[in-house]
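Appendix B. One record, verbatim.
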Amino acid sequence: MWIQVLLVVGLVAFAFIDLRNGGGGARHQALRRIGLVAFIGLGIFSILFPEWLGWVAGLVGVGRGADLVFYALVVAFLFYVATNHRRFVALDRKLTILARQLALTEAKLHDRHQDDAPAGIDPLPQDTQVNPPDGEPARSAVTRASR
């Protein structure tokens, strides 16, 4: 009996935290909330009535309810891995685009400083390093000037 109370409280706490800290668009958020509420409902029902899970397992051809839960968790884990892989690939593409834009912007800024300098003076040599404040990585003078 106590384990049932603890598991139900844990599922409700997880649902509360996950619904509060959600991200993404409105449609994604709505689908995620519906799925989470359904998952929590099934979880609570399975905790309170474990024989029901055994009955469902028998209907789908699995020997025990615990095996059915394990198989469902394997599928959910694979879905999670695939979803995160797609998200990381998209983030990697965005990071690459941002790095390219930053490099082009720094090059343009450096060219402008070169054009404005008196003849024969290089105001921002490429190898110049500015001493950064404590805890900050060293940056070139071009990057420092663009801040």
